[in-house]
Fold:
Amino acid sequence: MENERIERRIDDYIQSARGVLPDTFETEDLLEDVRAHIYESLQHKTEQRPEADTELLLKEVFNELGEPEDIAEAFGEQRIGEDRTDDDYRTWKILGSIVVKIVVVILAAWVVNQITNGMVDFWLAVGVLLVFVVLEWFLRNWQFEREP
Amino acid sequence: MKQGPSFEESWKVELRRGLLQYAVLAIVRLHEEGIHGYGIARELDERTDGLLEVKEGTLYPILHRLRKERLLNSHTEKSDAGPRRKVYVLTGEGDRVYRELSRTLGDVFEKLEALS
Structure:
């Protein structure tokens, strides 16, 4: 009977934490860790003070664990750090794509210049293709922003 | 009327927050066979005399972040207490990062000491 009550209290805590954390697979993984932690901590306290009331010990466990909001705040802080890493990745991705586009434009302009036996000026072809690349860039960004 | 924590309190919170990732790496590094989350929380409290004033639940987002950054690996094991628990182990990259951070911290404290 007491075990059931203890388990219900633990479930309630986990449920509260779930409520303030994002609804993701990572959250579920984290909540499993927190649940294991609660049981470890409770067992440790029970071994140290076998005569103490389990409900009281569980309160101590929750107190040491912190409010679910504390966990959510720490979770948010760690996510902000990750986002910075993502920003670096995005910057490199954009730079890489610019380099690739320039190389393609130069190659395409050279091919056009060769095929037309120099009737189409190389630099004119580069200019026209660059205009198309920039237009395509703006169009893609515009489409991306309109996506729900 | 002043609201919220004082300047020095906020500063201490920020400092503790910054040092926590380092302290977690340091503790995991001491356990070649790995250590579970509750063990980390206990050691953190015992070895620092509670200096970092950590709410134990806040360790798990940090452990998950360190694992995502590939500084820690984890596997699960049975526990007498109840559900299976994760055991965290330092990776080679984690060891390199820890040593780098230790050097940086050493430099910072050395320079700060020279200021006082």
The beta strands of chain B are 35-36, 72-79, 82-90. The mean pLDDT of chain B is 91. Chain B has one domain: 7-115.
